[in-house]
């Protein structure tokens, strides 16, 4: 049963890696759709979702160490908060990469829904 729980964690890790790579590679984009004061935070998009990422990381560690229903609920809530934060900076992602990120977020959310069942 524990093996099946690794799938959502792996999916979310892939979303994190993809998002960080895509966001970090877009430095110096003068076409920032939200401007330096918007959700894109200039060239530092990661600033917007770092709190959610840390909360999700903490919840993942807690759930991995003690896979209780309560920790699973915290894990899925933190995961959804993180994915919602990624969706907020989605409009900052270069158009060519959006479909991949959108699909990864969708799959990760579906995986989270199945985690505690």
UniProtKB/TrEMBL annotation:
Keywords: Signal. Residues 1-24 form the signal peptide. The keyword Signal applies. The keyword Signal applies. PROSITE patterns: PROKAR_LIPOPROTEIN. This is Lipoprotein.
